[in-house]
Write a structure and sequence with these properties.
Layout (H helix, E strand, L loop, with lengths): L4 E4 L12 H5 L3 E4 L16 H15 L4 E6 L3 H10 L4 E7 L16 H13 L1 H12 L6 H10 L2 H11 L7 H7 L3 E6 L7 H10 L4 E5 L7 H17 L9
Parallel strand pairs: 1-2, 1-3, 3-4, 4-5, 5-6
């Protein structure tokens, strides 16, 4: 059987996965991508969620993958769900860190901590470097290390920090129903003690998808070796149960 294929969907940049990417590459064929305008990626006329999804679909086409698993974290969930909805036959399963059904930050059982979000949004408006060096590091409980923060500052252009933040954190993003239409196996990861995501948001995701596998990790999922190992178990369980869907060489 071929090695499982795993597409890593970013929040801001593919660099976010560097902490656990080597661990994932130990058992899977791994691919990732940057949003338009980030790193070496050409800019689009308008950066929006659709443009990021299109970039992900282009990566699948470039790779020639007709079957793969998808993993993402937090603000990347809406991108990953839309990508999977566009290619439902290609996505064998999805692993979602900081699992939630929307980015709503107001009202009862809001999945996003509103005061923390407001503080981060204000910081990025006034000093995007401080946002990455301190805001992201603190919001993830130190899971994003200083060296990674510096590389992210270099990778993402100054003007895209603000416009990109607005795109990926839109309060109106509701993706629970879209996820249900994708109809594939799910792995939900909870970041224990997370400042930005609420307990209620994770609980409601699990209640809406009781068949989903779950894992709780102490670090931000995209930096957590435990999450990486859970993704491996998740993928291997699905492949062993559905050998006829094992990924074909191209």
């Amino acid at each position: 059987m071929d090695r499982p294929r795993l597409l890593l969907v970013p929040e801001f940049t593919e660099l976010e996965w560097d902490a656990i990417r080597p661990r994932l590459e130990g058992w899977a064929e791994v691919a990732s991508f940057d949003p338009p305008g980030v790193g070496d990626e050409p800019r689009t006329e308008r950066l929006d969620r659709g443009a990021i999804v299109e970039r992900g679909l282009e990566e699948l086409d470039r790779l020639g993958w007709d079957a793969c698993f998808v993993a993402t974290d937090s603000w990347g969930i809406a991108t990953a769900v839309r990508l999977a909805h566009a290619r439902p036959d290609a996505v064998m399963g999805m692993a979602l860190g900081h699992a939630k059904l929307s980015y709503r930050r107001e009202g009862e059982r809001a999945p996003v901590n509103g005061p923390i979000f407001d503080a981060l949004a204000e910081l990025i408006r006034t000093d995007h470097v401080a946002f990455v060096r301190h805001g992201i590091v603190q919001a993830t409980g130190g899971s994003v290390r200083d060296d990674l923060a510096e590389r992210m500052i270099e990778r993402v252009p100054h003007d895209l920090w603000m416009s990109g933040w607005e795109v990926i954190t839109r309060d109106a993003e509701e993706f629970g129903d879209l996820l249900r239409h994708v109809d594939c196996p799910l792995l939900f990861a909870k970041h224990v003690g997370c400042l930005g995501s609420t307990e209620e948001g994770f609980e409601d995701a699990v209640a809406a998808f009781p068949e989903a596998s779950t894992v709780a990790v102490e670090e931000a999922p995209l930096t957590s070796e435990k999450f990486a190992d859970a993704i491996r178990d998740f993928c291997e369980t699905i492949l062993s149960a559905t050998p006829e869907k094992s990924q074909r060489p191209t």
